[in-house]
Amino acid sequence: xxxxxxxxxxxxxxxxxxxxxxxxxxxxxxxxxxxxxxxxxxxxxxxxxxxxxxxxxxxxxxxxxxxxxxxxxxxxxxxxxxxxxxxxxxxxxxxxxxxxxxxxxxxxxxxxxxxxxxxxxxxxxxxxxxxxxxxxxxxxxxxxxxxxxxxxxxxxxxxxxxxxxxxxxxxxxxxxxxxxxxxxxxxxxxxxxxxxxxxxxxxxxxxxxxxxxxxxxxxxxxxxxxxxxxxxxxxxxxxxxxxxxxxxxxxxxxxxxxxxxxxxxxxxxxxxxxxxxxxxxxxxxxxxxxxxxxxxxxxxxxxxxxxxxxxxxxxxxxxxxxxxxxxxxxxxxxxxxxxxxxxxxxxxxxxxxxxxxxxxxxxxxxxxxxxxxxxxxxxxxxxxxxxx
Length: 388
Hints:
The chain is α/β, with parallel strands linked by helices and 388 residues long. The chain is 39% helix and 12% strand.
């Protein structure tokens, strides 16, 4: 065991007996510090984690990884059409945030949204069904990759327009404060959206009204094919709120994300908005149309995989703390791979939406006779002149 990495917080006993206890825990010390802006103190530099928690974090991140790899294969096989933005490499952010936030918290993100959909209660089958444009997806197969949505779990979707989710996040925060429900709003955006004017306009309003809003910059180092150094005069994104406090978190460490989010949530609920920078990395290109190696080389990607991979880090924690065994990890991996493979086949076999769905959900509360003109007048829908 790497004693610089962890120390036991349980009575000394044999490894075999420790593994039987789901309550067994260790204290992990982070290898990257939290960086603070306009804050006198920050989160602890350690995290206590139980066996059950650590195994769950590993399994969930591994499931996210396998789901995104499956989406890659489906896209290349022309089962997924249109845009598709994958999250592999950034799994610790989604999993760590859910561990540190609360279910009532409003969440909105960009078009890299498959994993938030899964973690807010959808299934792998449900996500892949929507990606394939099939009946039964969260948007009835009509939204696809960029428009996941689960309002019953307070997830208000992916957004296809760069930065468009930022003002929505402020609105969610306003709703939490207005209702007094104790919720906090989390609005995620990438470093590529960090210079959007709407971000700063909404943040100014949130600061004036002390809204319980957290802006989370998922800094994966590249906005499409442009590095952060070439796009931002200041790439310390956690300081970009100026008068709003900020914190930089190692977004490749699920425990650091969890502890950082817990700290931020408590602060924001009492004092108003904050900006988080999650230092992370995406393995795929910006989208499936981007090979991802024209503006960076394979050695760079391989180097991050070898030294900072969030799934491998969780696996290493399990083994080095003796909270789990290699056999248990293998069993999890086999089970998850089987689940994802079955989800792929189910999604493929699911029928496409009925043709009539082309005319639904255009406007809210539209009547059956509401007139919508087709590309040719003869294929229009509804009764001409009816506008409700």
